[in-house]
């Protein structure tokens, strides 16, 4: 057992209202610089929809992530040989058009317009070229466009859905959408790190945050092609690639990352997980249907004395172990099993988990009246407007089992709480539904508490980062302390 | 004291020989391609007993700056300029008054000998055969490598009728070099010790063998029947071949990378819009 610690995350999709506050918080802190205007380290997508960049989930086109070839785990986009043959042209590189060309408006023309008979306008100009542009797409171009012919119908997750289900998704009065906020997953088996020819990407030892060393990055952009979630971006101004840093400077001072902190729906949870690094490869090679269980089995019980001993042996600080014991992520992922990794079939073992959304009840339309098809207070999961297969394609590697389990448990908690607070459902029925959903009363209370009444401290259990321990490996921390904090800022630039 | 003197004497003697050796090398590298000592005229006159024909001061002045002497209208300088059919002696690198005097000393010594070491290269006088021409062609194109490892001519030169891209364009076209160098003897001598800076630096270390020179000269005599290549045709050929090559290469890239990433968003939008508004 080789115990490591990892800052992990849970996004509770049932609570996301799609307000993009997270995206804006991130943009204002990190990506408002020249060359980064088109980047959205945090973005919120509408599902069904094509996302950002357009259809990023379609790895037939983008070729991100890993695949199993002859029992070996290989990158889809590159290899040692391909690094050489594709050195002047990477054939898997998305263009800016697949993200969007960032723009602003010529406000001057609006404010300083001379008096005239026409209404003055502020024309859009590209933030890349400075020329006037026709705005054709944006980072959330299909925002709230559930049921749209172009975007929603082109969602790669519609694979395997029947024609009837597809039509239902866009039918009037039935169309449905939910939000899918995304940041870097800080994967356990990151393909971006594996693909970098310069060795500029690394996974931080103490907390597993995946970072790009701006001094070592040579702008090959292999990470851009290799990341299946398209969460590394190329800065065309500095000639280096950049990605979500999980606001590590904030984490190091005990603050939640900006997107977490600003989240209006309080959908975001953050905490430490302990995992077994020895079994990574074995798990990443499992067949699709076993991946979720395998991934969960990597996460170790922080209360287990054996795990604690092994963690201590790996110099994981007691305070971090304690933090792992209070981790909300551990509860959602491992104890309750209602948070699932996105697209685990890309085999990067993402460490951001999603609680799948409960969708509205399916309706019937008779002439001018619309009525619910279910008599139950909370409808059958199978009758939900979002077909189970769609969610399974997103969070279950195409298999419905884990989704059904997670949604049933959520439904059971609702029924139970309804019974407790309103009382129009007999407790006996509620308990039966709980049992059926493999949920105890204590667990239901726990889920309810952490979902609805969670405080700041419960949502974000940030471990002390113990930077001094990492520094100690290179340098005397006392000496380091007296040697930093005053000097020249060295902005990244092209070349060596 | 005696010992010191003897050491001094020996070192002066060695120095003297070294100097003499150095002058001979200079002669070989810079003079031999145009002049012989007792071997008849090449491009320039035979230098046997030159010091008796003209006084040393004039000679040394001419050697250090031939152009100035000719431009100044010196009658003797003009005479030898005419005799050389208008080929002007080049200003030689490292030629100083002292060097000129040393060279004149060397020429004087060599003139006194019955057979000077600078009488010219001994290259057979036998008539050229077709085989010689063939061998010369092979040497020129590099099909046959040079015995001493020098580079083949085609690297820098061309003659008409090379085909394809032709030969190199760095050096001059050699189609009529036989005529320009006034025949077999001069060309052979020149090739035995090429005097231009580029040729010299390349062939000083790896000189041509006499048989190779013979074959090459035979080949150059053979090419005399052709016209020098028309530069514009050659350039057009080059551009056309380059263009065709580029198209083939681009086609090849397209095949090799046929699965490359192409745009996603624009085609998706266009395709869907076409479907709804055909």
In brief:
Chain A has helices spanning 21-29, 59-62, 80-85, 96-99, 107-111, 163-170, 191-195, 222-226, 248-252, 258-261, 280-284, 291-298, 305-313, 318-325, 328-335, 388-395, 401-421, 427-436, 441-452, 456-459, 467-472, 477-483, and strands spanning 3-12, 43-47, 66-69, 72-75, 103-105, 124-126, 178-182, 201-203, 210-212, 232-235, 240-243, 268-276, 299-300, 352-355, 363-366, 369-372. Chain A is built from 22 helices and 16 strands. Chain B is mainly α and 278 residues long.
Describe the largest sheet of chain A. 4 strands, mixed
**Structural class by SSE content of chain B:** mainly alpha
**Nearest-angstrom radius of gyration of chain B?**
29 Å
Fraction in helix of chain B:
55-70%
Strand content of chain B: under 5%
Number of domains of chain A: 1
- Using only C-alpha atoms, the radius of gyration of chain A works out to 24 Å
Main beta-sheet annotation of chain B: none
Question: How would you portray this structure in words?
Answer:
The complex is a heterodimer of chains A (496) and B (278). Chain A is globular and about 70 Å long. Chain A is an alpha+beta fold. The model of chain A has no long low-confidence stretch (mean pLDDT 92). Chain A has a single domain, classed as Alpha-Beta Plaits. Chain A is 32% helix and 14% strand. Chain A has a 4-stranded mixed sheet, sandwiched between helices. A two-stranded antiparallel ribbon of chain A has the order 2-7. In chain A, a hairpin with a 6-residue loop joins strand 8 (201-203) and strand 9. Chain A has 22 helices and 16 strands. In chain B, helix 1 crosses helix 6 (97-112) and helix 3 (56-64) packs across helix 6. The model of chain B has no long low-confidence stretch (mean pLDDT 82). Chain B contains 13 helices and no strands. By secondary structure, chain B is mostly helical. Chain B has 3 domains: 2-112, Cytochrome c-like domain (Cytochrome Bc1 Complex, Chain D, domain 2, Orthogonal Bundle); 130-223, Cytochrome c-like domain (Cytochrome Bc1 Complex, Chain D, domain 2, Orthogonal Bundle); 234-276, no CATH class. The chains are: A alpha+beta (496), B mainly alpha (278). The interface between A and B is medium-sized, with 23 and 14 residues.
